[in-house]
Amino acid sequence: MRSPLQPLFELLNGDAYTPHLGDASLPLNRRFAGRSLVIAGGGGTSTAWTQRIIFDRQGKLTALEKRSELFRRGTAEWLDHLSKEAKETSGWLVLLVEQQWQATLSSSSSASLGPPGVERMLRVRDAVSLFGDERLSEDAVRVAIDHPTMEGAIVAGVRVGIVQQLEREARSQGFQIAAVRVPTVCLLEQHLARLADENASPSGALVAFDGQSALIVGVRDGAFDDTEGGISYVVNRAPAEVRLQILRRLQASRNARDVRGVALVIGENISSDPTQIPQDFDLQTEPKETLSAVIDERVRHDMRSELEEVRRALPTWSRSAVYGMIALSIACIGGAATHAADGWQIGERTKMQDALRVADESAIAIANQHIAAVKAEDLRAHQMADWIDRNYHAQALLNSFLQTLPTEVSVDAVSVQAAEGLPQAKLKFTLLGSESSQRQALRSIENSLYALGYEVGRRDDPVPSSARRGGVVYAWDLIMPSFGS
Amino acid sequence: MSYYRNTFVALLLLFVAAIAVFLAASAFRTKKHEAFTQATQAALHASNCRHAAEAERESRERGIQAYREFTKAWRAYSDVAAPSDLGNTIRASLTSLATQAGLTSEGATVAGEPRTYAVAGRAIKVQQVSLNVIGESLPAVLAWLGAVEGRYAYARVESCALSAYASHSVQLSVTLLHPVESANARPALAAAESIVSRK
After folding, report:
1. CB contact under 8 A, B53 and A371
2. What is the pLDDT of residues A265-303, one digit of tens each?
3. Chain A contacts of B76, Cβ < 8 Å?
């Protein structure tokens, strides 16, 4: 089961920008650019061989190693050979089914099933009514080979049981299957694709022969000849008999004066006698070891039993976009972490500033409290200063008053009443004696008061005393001296 | 491309989230920086105010020293628990001085509550004590008055009336006003003294 994080890993390690090795919609050379690949085929059910090929980074074939010796399929020697090949290469294998395949003609083109790709191949497999008949097994894995200007298609198939057996054998030794192909079908597909590229149509018969089996397709009037004998295939026979059958067919064509055609041959010639091949036949032969038709990028057919859509390679520009986005995300997160740490440090410094401010405000409160206390103290002190400043010395005043009186005058009573809040007092006294002596006494009293710093502000009119006969009551307003003056 | 769609969406969300986190962190830092700037300015202002307040305190402290010595002097006479105690203390003292001088005292009264007295536009609480003393010698009576003024140097003789009392006797009626320490001033003074003592 695929991990949900697999796409992310592929985006990060770069695999997403290279084709998936199992993508049947891409040619082998693009899938395995810069990698090695193993081709495995067999001349029959009992023989098998392998051949390593290596593509460069541009998808060109750079090395084609020598084909291995024939093995007997299913033996321990063969399995060991497969295991060794899997370990020494990329571990991907192209299986060639050189025999045990079938073919027929379909009146329908696979182009009607959608654009080329895996989905079209899967639809061909499912569309039994269009691409199958009695010549193909019902459970065959079918492929359709088209030409864009021709109606109909060449349909080839291999029984799914055979494909699965071959796949199982390869997978058990560590291989993954890159493709399952039929060499003769590869020859036809390559030829038709080449003609399509040249805007040409096939004419005459098409003969494909890979040394093990042959496929003969009739073409008449620009269309596949679906009359009886329009297509035939020779498989599961000895190579000599296959050649004989091909020559018989060609001979039949010569008799029918339809002698034109193309013979597509891998490796050995159809016949050692060139005269047996009609002169109008275009004989196209390639060496057996080149495998050019099998790995040609125009050949796309794939008969893997579990063919499925796989991820497509992302365009090159997306790599920069993804890496840029990830780099920007990391930069943003790094920047955010830096800002957050900076903000946190600033917050701590703010707390220190707040603590300093609180300490200062506390000191200010204490200082203000102290100032208020000092102000109160200052006010109190000034109050007392004013209080004392307005005080007077009562003993000195009375003593001075009494001592300055002449002997002819006596005092009946004397009182001092200080005025509230003012440096002023009311002096009242009652004198006894003659009028002249009282005047003299008044001058003496006034002088003594002046000597003490007092001033007489106002003198009430003297009035007779009600308490003492002959007494006169005097009332003066005294202005007191200032404290310390 | 659909194979990577969810991953692309996740990466895009991560990218957007990273940008959002970056912007949030930037806003967080900006906010913290603004708070730091304000805190720094407030701290600087508080520091300046503190220096100004401490300078004013020291200036006032220097200016109050002379008055403080004076205040301590008169508080020695009035530092009693309650104004009524002050009145009774003064009355007892006056009576004692009269007895010591061989005078007879009578009619001693102490006002129940201190009265508010206005001096130079400021109110001051004063305790009033009245007393009559009778003696046969005028100098003795005057000497008693001098002794009273000496004992209570900051008291104000609100009134004094000297008159003849029977034959060969003199009567002096005196009303004293003694300042009572303000109830409001006392805590302030105590606080000021505690602060000064801490310094």
Report:
1. yes
2. 887 677 777 777 777 788 888 887 778 889 999 999 999
3. none
Nearest to A182 by CA among A197, A166, A171: A166
In sequence order, what are the residues at sequence separation of 6 or more whose Cβ sits closer than 8 angstroms to the Cβ of residue A256?
none
Asked if residues B119 and A421 have their Cβ atoms less than 8 Å apart, the reply is: yes
- Measure A420 CA to nearest chain B CA, in Å: 7
For the segment A108-150, what is each residue's pLDDT rounded down to a tens digit?
A: 888 888 888 899 999 999 988 888 888 888 889 999 999 988 8
| A404's tokens | 């300055």
Instruction: Return left, alpha or beta for A227; rule: phi > 0 is left, psi -120 to 50 is alpha, else beta.
Output: beta
- Put simply, whether B41 touches A (Cβ < 8 Å) is no
* pTM of the model as a whole: 0.58
State the complex-level ipTM.
0.72
Q: Kindly write down the DSSP assignment for every residue of chain B, as one continuous string.
A: -GGGHHHHHHHHHHHHHHHHHHHHHHHHHHHHHHHHHHHHHHHHHHHHHHHHHHHHHHHHHHHHHHHHHHHHHHHHHH--SSHHHHHHHHHHHHHHHHHHTT-EEEEEEE-SS-EEEEETTEEEEEEEEEEEEEES-HHHHHHHHHHHHHHTTT-EEEEEEEEE-STT-EEEEEEEEEE---TTHHHHHHHHHHHHHH-
- Closest Cα in chain B, distance from residue A460 (Å): 18
Q: Is there a contact between A380 and B36 if contact means CB atoms under 8 Å apart?
A: no
Confidence of residue B82 (pLDDT cuts 50, 70, 90): low
pLDDT at B199: 38
